[in-house]
Amino acid sequence: MNNAVTIRRLKTGIPGFDHLLGGGLSEFSFNLIAGEPGSGKTTLAHQIMFSLARPECRALFFTVLGEPALKMLRYQQQFSFFDTDKINSSIRFINLADDLLKGDYDNVLARIVQEVRDYGPRLVFVDSFRSIVEAKKGKNEGGSDLQLFVQNLGQQMTSWQATTFLIGEYSLSDAQSNPIFTVADGVLWMSQKLLRNSIVRKIQVIKMRGQPHVPGLHTFRINLDGIAVFPRAVQPADKVDSATSPFIPADQRLSMGVPILDDMMGGGLPAGYALLLVGPSGSGKTILATEFLAEGVRNGEPGIIAAFEKSPNQLLSRKLYDLVKTGQITLVDTRTLDLSIDETLYELTSKIEKLKAKRVVIDSLSGFELALAPEFREDFRESLYRMIAVLTSMGVTIVMTAELEDRYTDLRFSSYGNAFLADAVILQRYAEVEGRFNRVISVVKVRGSAHSKDIRLYDIDGEAIRIDKAPFPYEGILSGRPTRL
Amino acid sequence: MASSNVQRHQIIQRTIAKSTGDVADVAVKLWQPLAAQLISIVGEGGFNALYARSLHLVSRQYPWLASGTLADSDNPEFKALKSSLENQSAADAGQAILAFLILFTDALSSLIGESLTTRILTSAWGGAPDKDSMEKESR
Lengths: 485, 139
What we know:
Chain A is α/β, with parallel strands linked by helices. In chain A, the strands form five sheets. A nine-stranded mixed β-sheet of chain A has the order 5-4-6-7-3-8-9-10-11, sandwiched between helices. In chain A, strands 16-15-17-18-14-19-20-21-22 form a nine-stranded mixed β-sheet, with helices on both faces. Chain A has a two-stranded antiparallel sheet with strand order 1-2.
C-alpha cells in the first residue's frame, strides 16, 4: 500500500510552463523566482497569481521596495491576464515599503505574518526581496540579521498552508552560496541575454522538489498575453523506444508529387526521412516543396510549411494559397529575427499534433538561420539535429530547402555541413548550355535505398516541375563547363 | 471613458452629499479610509506623491487649501487640511473637497486605470461596489 502523501499540482495554464515544472506547481511549496532586473519575474508571478486566484483560493501579493506599486499595477494591467475583478475579491496587494523603511525586520516579518493570518491566502507572493537585502546594506547594518530575516521569512512561508513565492534579484552565483536557495522547494531562474541586437529570454527550473521537471535553459517570450515558455524540445525518452514511436513501415514511401522524381529516388521519399533540397536562388525549391505538400493533400495527409524566407503573401503561390485555404496545409509564419529553435519547434510540434500532419516543409534553412537570434546561430547545427530528431520521431516526413550559391569549383550541399543531417539530398543546379541557363536536378543521396545517379534537365512550367525522362547529355555540368557527350 | 469617469465622479458626489455634519469632518472621514486603502497597496510614499500632485493642481482653484502631505509632521490625520477647510464657508469647503477628490482619483486613474481606481474607492468608502445602483443609474 502506498501511504505517500499526494501532492496536488497547481496548473498555472501558462503556455509551456507547467510542462517545464513537471506538471505544475506543487501545492504548499515554497518557491523562489530569481533573476536579474527586467527578466520578467514580476510578470511571471502576476501571471501565476491571476491564473490561480479564485475566491476560494485567495492570493496575497506583498510589494517591497523593488518597483513602485503604482507603476507595477499600471504596467501589469497591460497584460491580458490582469483581471481587475479579482482584486480585493481574491487578490490583495499589500505594500511593505513603509514598514521596511521604518526599520526593523521583525516588524516587517510580523506584519507579513499578521496579514497572512488575517486574509488566509492560499497563495502568497513577496516581491522583491533582494531589495530587502539592499535596504539593510544601505543602512550599514549587519548583513547577518538580514540573512536571518530572509531565512525566517522562508521558514514562515513553508509553514503556512499556502503556496508561496519569493521574488528577488539574485545573481546566479548567489544560488550556490545563499541559504535561501537551500530552503526553497522550487527555484526558478529567469534571465535575458543580449547578443548583438537581440534579446533572448530564458527560464530555468533549477530545482523543483519531488517532481520531474525539465532541466536546462528554455526560451520564453513576453507578449501582451504574458509569458509563454517554449520548453527545449528533446526527443521524448519514451519515443526513443521504438515500441512506442509511431510505426512507419520500412518500405513506405511518400510521393514527391513529381512522378519522374519519385522514380529517380527509387520509388519516392521513404517515410520518416528528412530530405534536403539544395539549389541556387530561383531554381524552384519552393515549387518542388509545394508539390510535395500538394501530393500529401491528395493522399489525405495534412502538411505544415514553416516559411522563413518570404512573407506569407509573397510565399504563397496560387497553388500553395489554395492549399492553405482548404485548411489542409498550415502555414507557420515566422518572420522575426529573434526566434529560438525551440519556439519554432514548439509551434511545429503542437501544430503537427493538432493536425495530425504527416508532411513538414521548412523553407528554408538559410532563412531559418537568419530568423534566429544571433545567440542560437552559433549552435544551429546542433539544434537542427535535435529538431529533425524530434520531428521524425513524431512520424513526419520533412523536406528542408537550402539555398546555395552555385560555385563550380566546389560541390557543397549546404552551409556548415548540414547535409549530413539529411537522410536524402536532392541537388538543383544551373548549367549554361548554348547560351541559356538550364536547370538540372539530381538525386544525390537516399539513405538505405537505390536511386538514380542521373543529372537531368528540368523546367518550371507555371507551378509544376517537368523533369526530363533521360539524363542530360552533357558532362562537366558540376564543374561549370558542360560539354556535349 | 467619459461614462465611467462620470460614474466615479458620481460616487464621490453622492458620498459627499450623503455625509452629514461639518464639511471639514466629512473631508477627513473620506480621506482617511481612502488613504489607508491606498497606502496598503502602493505605500505611503506612493500615496503622498499623488496627494501632493493633486493638491498642487486643485490649489490653483482653491489656493487656501493647506499644503502638506501625510509625510509632514504638522499634518497628521489630515489635520492641516481640516483646519484650512474650517476657515471657509461650508459651500466653498464642499466645492473644494469635491474638486480635490475628483482630481486625486483622476490622477490615480490615469496611472492604474478606471476600474481599479473605482474598486479602491468603493472598498474604502463602504464595502462592495454599489453595483446595482450604479447599473440602474447608467440605464
